[in-house]
UniProtKB/TrEMBL annotation:
Subunit relationships: F-type ATPases have 2 components, F(1) - the catalytic core - and F(0) - the membrane proton channel. F(1) has five subunits: alpha(3), beta(3), gamma(1), delta(1), epsilon(1). F(0) has four main subunits: a(1), b(1), b'(1) and c(10-14). The alpha and beta chains form an alternating ring which encloses part of the gamma chain. F(1) is attached to F(0) by a central stalk formed by the gamma and epsilon chains, while a peripheral stalk is formed by the delta, b and b' chains.
The name this protein goes by in its record: ATP synthase subunit b, chloroplastic
GO cellular component assignments: chloroplast thylakoid membrane; proton-transporting ATP synthase complex
The UniProt record lists the keyword Transmembrane helix: yes
Function: F(1)F(0) ATP synthase produces ATP from ADP in the presence of a proton or sodium gradient. F-type ATPases consist of two structural domains, F(1) containing the extramembraneous catalytic core and F(0) containing the membrane proton channel, linked together by a central stalk and a peripheral stalk. During catalysis, ATP synthesis in the catalytic domain of F(1) is coupled via a rotary mechanism of the central stalk subunits to proton translocation. Component of the F(0) channel, it forms part of the peripheral stalk, linking F(1) to F(0).
Organism expressing this protein natively: Oreosalsola abrotanoides
Regions that span the bilayer: 26-49
Keyword check for Translocase: no
Membrane topology of the entry: Single-pass membrane protein
A GO MF label: proton-transporting ATP synthase activity, rotational mechanism
Length: 184
């Protein structure tokens, strides 16, 4: 049995020229095995790997293209929104200015209307006062005239005889007739 184990131990010492055997140098065999595996992978896996990378590249490019399109649309919408905002702000400013001027105009109209109404009320008041004063003056005149007439008639009746009384009445009637013609 010792011969069998000795033969495996001394396998590394066999001469390499023209013979076949096991190489027990681990570093040398690993490099050779690794390069063979890599060669096979590159030779057979090259197409698959290339296809995978191409597909990935196309997906990335499509994503970038879609992103650029979306970005362009978003910028366009943003510009439209800014334009609409400016337009709305201008309209709001115009409405505000028009509203203030309309409020001022309505205020002035209200003040003028109130002033005219107060002026008319003042005129009506003055006319009413003048009318009432004239009415009161006319009533007082009428009462004074009636009292004076009654007093004069009483004095005349006590002082006058019938003939003188008739002449006085005729003279007074003539005076009243002339007064009525003047007032008409």
């Amino acid at each position: 049995m010792k011969n069998v184990t000795d033969s495996f131990v001394f396998l590394g010492h066999w001469p390499s020229a023209g013979s076949f055997g096991f190489n027990t140098d681990i570093l040398a065999t690993n490099l050779i095995n690794l390069s063979v595996v890599l060669g096979v992978l590159i030779f057979f896996g090259k197409g698959v790997l290339s296809d995978l990378l191409d597909n990935r590249k196309q997906r990335i490019l499509n994503t970038i293209r879609n992103s650029e399109e979306l970005r362009g649309k978003a910028i366009e919408q943003l510009e439209k929104a800014r334009t609409r905002l400016k337009k709305v702000e201008m309209e709001a400013d115009q409405f505000r200015v028009n509203g203030y001027s309309e409020i001022e105009r309505e205020k002035m109209n209200l003040i003028n209307s109130t002033y005219k109404t107060l002026e008319q009320l003042e005129n009506y008041k003055n006319e009413t006062i003048n009318f009432e004063q004239q009415k009161a003056i006319n009533q007082v005149r009428q009462q004074v005239f009636q009292q004076a007439l009654q007093g004069a008639l009483g004095a005349l009746n006590s002082c006058l005889n019938n003939e003188l009384h008739l002449r006085t009445i005729n003279a007074n009637i003539g005076m009243f007739g002339a007064m009525n013609e003047i007032s008409d």
